[in-house]
Amino acid sequence: MDVTILLQQFINALSLGSLYGLIAIGYTMVYGILRLINFAHGDIMMMGCFFAFYGIFMFSLSWWASFVIAIVLTAVLGIMIDRGAYRPVRNAPRISALITAIGVSFLLENVGLVVFGGRPKGFPRPEFLGTIHELWGVRFLGLLIWTPLVTLLLLAFILFVVYRTRVGRAMRCISFDMETTRLMGVDVNRIVAITFAIGSAVAAAGGILWAMKYPQINPLMGIIPGLKAFVAAVLGGIGNVTGAMAGGLLLGFAEIFLVAINPDLAGYRDAIAFAILILILLFRPSGLMGEKLPE
Amino acid sequence: MKRLLLSVMVLSLMVCVSSPAFAADKDDTVRIGIFLPMTGGVAAYGQMEYAGIQAANKIKPTVLGKKVELFLVDTKSDKIEAANAVDRLIKKNNVHAIIGEAISGNTIAGAPIADKAKIPMVSPTATNPLVTQNRQYIFRVCFIDPFQGEMAAKYVYDNLGSRKAAILVDIAQDYCVGLANFFAKSFILKGGKIVATTYCQTGDQDFTAQLSSIMAQKPDILYIPNYYAEVALACKQAAEIGLNVPVFSGDGAQAPELIQIGGKDVEGVVFTGHFEKKAASTELAKKYIAMYEKETGKEASGFDALGADAYFVILDAMERAKSINGTKVRDALANTKNFQAISGTINIGADGNAVKSLVLIQVKNGNFTYLDTVNP
């Protein structure tokens, strides 16, 4: 393998990994605060893509306006899902909430199939993100420069909210002990709603970047990225936002370099991703950067 | 109380036993079951084929003096759903014949059930040889992959002068694996070399790693015998990493989504297809194109035309058999000679396969453009 191809594979891995990371940080944030694995995360991401798509093609908005509106709408959707599906089972055993999350996931997928139709749609890419840059024979999209930037920005935003604001303090309290937080006079439902709003908005941002990289959107598009982001989140230590980012990058590199080193193994790409999940759960359930949970 | 319960049970048992038999006797309509992927990864094929079947039904709504009723079941592009769909069509809807599936893997999953129930089944576009192998009641109105692969190899070797081919194949699909093998075999036989074969799976969106490793082998043709969404994304990513070689694909590429998703990056892609409007030669084709375009407002193309052909071939067999009995229709289907279908002349042999021509299609200026017709 010559150096150019190696560098090209490095770029490929970086671009895939930062997308996994971006989707994983929303996933892991919701888990970290609510101890709820939101299996609908990938489908919320899909909804964000469709909001953006219809903003551009049905309401002829400019791409940035439509992206902003899509992110806001997805945040609202996140709040609605929490209100309708998760709040009623808030005090039920954790397994009920998990099953509800799977139900929400199927609901979004199937409503999507009915409303948006099952055929894939092409997703637009703004000019400056679609231009191809070349450096030492390695080619990459303008998008590649922006994805890690957006990811870091959102990561900083989440860390700021969680660790530097009053709302964030309440979130951390909830993750510690929801009942006691409520006794302290914190409006738990409001804080959880904000958590879902942020988580869903980040999912929408990730989804839009994903759709620009792989410009094909359909109602089932969230499943695989959602599962991969879950693996990334577990790999990094579920609940740890920085860890999710690192886990995403690691997963991206593992997948790309598996193929780069031995192209014959390309068919086992997903198998590798999920084998990593099993190994992590077996040998280091708290992930690479997660705190040890006293269970 | 006990007596009442008993009589209710007996009564319900009678209803259960008598109702299917009653429905089967009362054949004032001909019921054709359709199982197609209306949603999921290959929804475009199913939706196009169903629209084609509906247009065909408008042209010829009756057979043997009876009204034709259509029953559609969505397979969600999934093998298990496909098998269940066939079962449901036979048991619940008591269909006399079945049209479907659009893709090989799902047809293979559904075939044994129809075969066992002795209900003739015609697939519009399942091209893998295994679909009809060792089956009595399974037919198709499309060519098969050994022919398609051979013609693809011939075209890239002779017309494009390619000698070093790379293949990106979806290993989750019988169709893709089969076609890639037939292409490789024929290409090597002609004197070409396969410099790289890499794999992906249905639903994959990132092919950059595979394409980069293909680029290292410096091929002069890239053969991607996958379904339209994967072909479009692969072409896009090939252009992005600078793998600028001609791309050749199979009949699965003929969906408008290829161009809609691929945009300028699928310009110049050539593929072997079933039917192109400009190559239409039969009376039925003219009638069909007019009807389809009036009904849907879209241009007639390969998949919808083959859906309609499956419908017409079944009705033709029923007329020749003068019956809708499964076994008689099966015998008539296996004896389809010189049927003037939309996509050309169809001959079906005892093996259930159609012998027919294929068309070469190229993407030019954002449209599918007819290049040539190749006869077997």
Task: Describe this protein's structure.
- The complex is a heterodimer of chains A (295) and B (376).
- The model of chain A has no long low-confidence stretch (mean pLDDT 87).
- Chain A has helices spanning 3-34, 41-57, 63-86, 94-116, 127-130, 142-164, 166-176, 178-183, 188-213, 223-236, 241-261, 269-283, and strands spanning 121-122, 132-135, 138-141, 216-217.
- Chain A starts with a helix and ends in a 12-residue tail after the last helix.
- Chain A has a domain at 21-222.
- Chain A is mainly alpha-helical.
- In chain A, 73% of the residues lie in helices and 4% in strands.
- Chain B is an alpha/beta fold and 376 residues long.
- Chain B has two domains: 27-143 and 279-356, Rossmann fold (3-Layer(aba) Sandwich); 146-273, 3-Layer(aba) Sandwich (Rossmann fold).
- Helix content of chain B is 46%, strand content 21%.
- Chain B has twelve helices and 16 strands.
- Chain B has helices spanning 2-25, 43-59, 79-91, 104-117, 145-159, 174-190, 208-216, 228-241, 256-262, 283-296, 302-321, 326-333; strands at residues 29-36, 62-63, 66-74, 97-100, 121-123, 138-140, 164-170, 193-200, 221-224, 247-249, 270-273, 339-341, 344-348, 354-355, 358-364, 367-374.
- In chain B, the strands form three sheets. A seven-stranded mixed sheet of chain B has the order 8-7-9-10-11-15-16, sandwiched between helices. In chain B, strands 2-3-1-4-5-6 form a six-stranded mixed sheet, with helices on both faces. Chain B has a three-stranded antiparallel sheet with strand order 12-13-14.
- In chain B, α3 runs parallel beside α4 (104-117), α8 runs parallel beside α9 (256-262) and α11 (302-321) crosses α12 (326-333).
- Chain B is globular and about 65 Å long.
- Mean pLDDT of chain B is 88; it is low at 16-25.
- Chain A binds chain B through residues 1-2, 5, 8-9, 12-13, 15-16, 113, 117-122, 132, 134, 139-141, 214-216, 218-221, 223-224, 255-260, 263-264, 266-267, 269-270, and chain B through 37-41, 43-44, 47, 171, 196, 198-201, 203-206, 208-210, 212-216, 229, 232-233, 236, 240-242, 257, 260-263.
